[in-house]
């Protein structure tokens, strides 16, 4: 089994040879790069398991994304293959969920914007050498930052999990709820948000519930909690950005 350094070196060598390869050698070299990096694609796919689509299907989609990255990678412009391949694979998985995985569909305008956001993320990641911020994506697409944040927030909310199912500590999510709140169980059951919402206040959870579970408008939320529509917009943007930072860094303190 190759070490990480050996894998990177072998990948770079195969990609350089692939650039000038003829038809007879191209397929073999593409297969070699895919073989060297297939573990990465499999690991990325595993992060999306439990959201309503079989893991085997996710692995196939991730492998297709890896092959697309191999065929599109330009050794004259880039040196870090995984820096290009990882966002490409994630983009393929997100597109697959957008097209096949929704149990509760967001508005059509958000679905359409998600496709543009995914493409922009890949393009900007390649140009910047790091994941772009929502503001950078918004500027690139010439849309409002709030709309980008809303599109990003809707990604991944595909299949609710049972509150009665035991977790790793043999306790169900239901047994850990400290109080009852209309619709809270559905929010807590969303797999991608389960670990993130625990650090929010009851008011913040209420705002998220009204917007993303009940589908209320910002004006309706403002009436419900006693603030203006503008304040709701700002609070939603702040909440979603905080959750994204925690998801990316794993550290609640970084989102404070």
Secondary-structure topology with pairs:
Blueprint: H1 4-19, H2 23-46, H3 55-72, H4 81-100, H5 108-128, H6 134-141, H7 145-154, H8 184-189, H9 202-213, H10 218-225, H11 229-249
Helix pairs in contact: 1-2, 2-3, 2-4, 3-4, 4-5, 5-6, 5-7, 6-7, 7-11, 10-11
Describe it for me?
The chain has 256 residues and is mainly α. The chain has three domains: 1-101, Four Helix Bundle (Hemerythrin (Met), subunit A); 102-159, Arc Repressor Mutant, subunit A; 178-255, Arc Repressor Mutant, subunit A (Orthogonal Bundle), CATH 1.10.10. The protein has eleven helices and no strands. It has helices at 4-19, 23-46, 55-72, 81-100, 108-128, 134-141, 145-154, 184-189, 202-213, 218-225, 229-249. The protein starts with a helix and ends in a 7-residue tail after the last helix.
* Overall body shape: elongated
End-to-end gap: 42 Å
Largest sheet, strands/sense/barrel: none
Number of helices: 11
| DSSP, total strands | 0
CATH topology-level fold name of the largest domain: Four Helix Bundle (Hemerythrin (Met), subunit A)
State the CATH architecture of the largest domain. Up-down Bundle
Name its key features.
Four Helix Bundle (Hemerythrin (Met), subunit A); Arc Repressor Mutant, subunit A; 3 domains; elongated; 256 residues; single chain
In short:
The protein is mainly α and 256 residues long. The chain contains 11 helices and no strands.
């Amino acid at each position: 089994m190759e070490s990480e350094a050996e894998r990177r070196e072998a990948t770079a060598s195969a990609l350089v040879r692939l650039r000038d390869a003829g038809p007879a050698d191209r397929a073999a070299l593409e297969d070699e790069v895919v073989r060297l990096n297939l573990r990465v694609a499999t690991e990325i796919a595993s992060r999306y398991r439990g959201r309503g689509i079989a893991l085997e299907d996710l692995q196939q989609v991730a492998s297709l994304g890896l092959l697309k990255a191999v065929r599109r990678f330009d050794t004259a412009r880039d040196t870090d293959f995984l820096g290009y391949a990882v966002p490409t694979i994630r983009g393929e998985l997100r597109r697959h969920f957008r097209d096949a995985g929704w149990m509760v569909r967001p508005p059509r305008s958000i679905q359409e914007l998600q496709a543009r956001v995914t493409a922009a993320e890949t393009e900007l990641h390649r140009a910047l050498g790091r994941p772009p911020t929502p503001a950078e994506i918004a500027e690139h697409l010439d849309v409002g930052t709030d709309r980008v944040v809303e599109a990003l927030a809707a990604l991944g909310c595909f299949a609710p999990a049972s509150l009665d199912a035991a977790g790793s500590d043999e306790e169900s999510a239901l047994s850990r709820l400290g109080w009852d709140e209309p619709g809270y169980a559905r929010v807590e059951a969303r797999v991608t948000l389960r670990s993130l919402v625990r650090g929010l206040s009851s008011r913040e959870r209420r705002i998220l519930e009204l917007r993303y579970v009940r589908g209320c408008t910002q004006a309706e939320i403002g009436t419900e909690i006693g603030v203006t529509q503008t304040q709701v917009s700002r609070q939603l943007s702040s909440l979603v950005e905080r959750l994204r930072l925690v998801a990316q860094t794993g550290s609640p303190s970084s989102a404070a």
